[in-house]
Amino acid sequence: MNLEALSYKLRQDTIDIICAGKAGHIGGDMSEMEILVELYFHQMNISVENQNDKDRDYFILSKGHSMESYYAILAEKGFLNLDEIKEKFSKFNTAYIGHPNNKLPGIEMNSGSLGHGLPVSVGIAKGLKMNHQENRVYVLMGDGELAEGSVWEGAMAAHQYKLDNLCAIIDRNRLQISGNTEDVMGHDDLHERFKSFGWNVIDVKDGNSMKELEKAFDTAKTVKGKPTVLIANTIKGKGSSIMENKANWHHKVPTKEEYDQIMADLKRKEEELQ
């Protein structure tokens, strides 16, 4: 499977979901796509068939507002139906809401209240260790989310319990709803900060590169005695020049003209990669 081309195909599905529901955190959807694709189609032991198996891998979308790309992933994996998502997303009294809803297949945790995903993932990973299981736990956080104190409480606990079955990923696109992360609540040197909390830290220079992500995740699996965090340097709005690195695309529904341009850009990139 060509995962690079798939990431652009799923970006198109994501745009259609957002336009159908007239809502969505489009910028973060685009920046996190390769991370989700690499996890679900290469790294994790998770499928429709084993979704309730005790030996499955776990994924938590802590930056739960970037849900639309996750819907696209779950549909491609067979957990959900894409047409049903488009029909029901963001409608009254729907299960297809703008954040993860574990009443839907394939979703482990209701999230979106930022800062909770890592602590919950620590609990899951600790439980698996206590049961002598080999499963892995993955949690995706936004860089704006790191301003939450509960993230760092979770980071301390993960080190304390030597949770080498836990891998956190930071979608480091440097933009949040109110602007640049470093202007809102600066993170300084994230590598050194997580290192000081006792984590193994892997910097992914291009967090939208499937090759770099594959190497980083493979390396994380070899680390023993401590949790690993991937700092994935991504581009908010990745895939179309009208969105890339623009904070106003944090939450936005494209106009008809913008939709046509974005989809043309994404289709062209998908074709180039095939």
UniProtKB/TrEMBL annotation:
Gene3D superfamilies: 3.40.50.970. InterPro entries: THDP-binding (IPR029061), Transketolase_N (IPR005474). Keywords: Thiamine pyrophosphate. Residues 10-256 form the Transketolase N-terminal domain. It comes from the Bacteria. Its cofactor is thiamine diphosphate. SUPFAM superfamilies: Thiamin diphosphate-binding fold (THDP-binding). Belongs to the transketolase family. This is Transketolase. It comes from Anaerostipes hadrus.
